[in-house]
């Protein structure tokens, strides 16, 4: 294995696995991507030697800092044992974190373990409108704290100055590689990162607003032991390995999976709520009352009944609420208690669905997807074609199922129906 990724949630893991598998021939001039596997947690076995990039999916974005650090270091050890020359710490393109962490503490712990400083931190994902200017993160034309992310149920983002935000989470000062340096090319970036390290800056926010900027950063960090960022930071990385003759693109085919289907949504993000509204117009949809879940009135048994009655009709069960509803529910029961009970509900439901024959499963929400995937004993996942930007088809050969794990804010408005069609799709061609 050449490249190892430690991802702080499961949808984010799929997002970067997709980027690595796809490669970016148009901007790198180098065809193809890497042969990628996504692992559910840290595997207890050696990786298949054919795998060039391994993505370890953790669920560390919203857990206590010390646990996030400890789990990330275990993942690092495993990836090093597989021979990885480069490690990417993948976090959210909207920098989802609290003032305490977990991005800063995990990134600094990985940097300490690898003995490096002047490490790139860049969440930019231009395809989906996430760009970094002078250390400030924008979502399209809005600063992060006005993008809707200020209302996130677990990690409300109330400061667009991510250099300052990361500084609150970090022991060392945080540096900046501004756009002017990035535009000057990869040598200039490498020089700036060396200067950051010399100043004692373990991490340095790098500006990026185009894929070309990300390729420049990827070139600058070609042989860096550690890089951190959103999936965009991986755009230029496959080309480094292919150019050096260490990896070669290989074609794989995805034949599609047929059989019963289900859609579960626990994301309260704007895009997911729009997708729910569109889907429920002409498909069966079950709105889960969080009060009923918290009071033991609604259980997985009710959800299973709903899905059984609606096989073949693309049924959707969702807990998602608007910011006002989320705030009211959290005030009544507590943020962690609600998230924990909903995670449990979705995980139990998914386990029974797959045991009962569901073969195509779509899940919306990073935490929700993490809970579901951990419950399913999926084995290693192979990466199929991209359904929508940042969301690949994931194939579990062990369970004979295909999944779409959708980040809250990703996907077209008709995503749910589109994803189920893609999972059952006719053959796709992909270089992997
Ligand atoms: N109606 C609701 N009220 C409060 N919290 C909710 C509600 N529905 C879902 N949640 C919780 O909100 C969180 C959404 O996070 P996540 O699944 O990561 O979605 P996203 O990808 O949009 O961030 C989860 O912890 C989920 O359990
Ligand atoms: O980087 C991104 O935006 C995604 O890969 C991601 O991590 C999204 O997280 P969720 O919105 O919690 O799914």
Automatic annotation (TrEMBL):
GO terms for molecular function: ATP binding; kinase activity. The keyword ATP-binding applies. SUPFAM superfamilies: YgbK-like. Keywords: ATP-binding, Carbohydrate metabolism, Kinase, Nucleotide-binding, Transferase. Pfam families: NBD_C (PF17042), SBD_N (PF07005). InterPro entries: 4-carb_acid_sugar_kinase_N (IPR010737), 4-carb_acid_sugar_kinase_N_sf (IPR037051), NBD_C (IPR031475), NBD_C_sf (IPR042213), OtnK (IPR050007). Residues 262-416 form the Four-carbon acid sugar kinase nucleotide binding domain. It catalyses: 3-dehydro-D-erythronate + ATP = 3-dehydro-4-O-phospho-D-erythronate + ADP + H(+); 3-dehydro-L-erythronate + ATP = 3-dehydro-4-O-phospho-L-erythronate + ADP + H(+). Residues 3-236 form the Four-carbon acid sugar kinase N-terminal domain. Belongs to the four-carbon acid sugar kinase family. Catalyzes the ATP-dependent phosphorylation of 3-oxo-tetronate to 3-oxo-tetronate 4-phosphate. This is 3-oxo-tetronate kinase. The lineage of its organism: Bacteria, Pseudomonadati, Pseudomonadota, Alphaproteobacteria, Rhodobacterales.
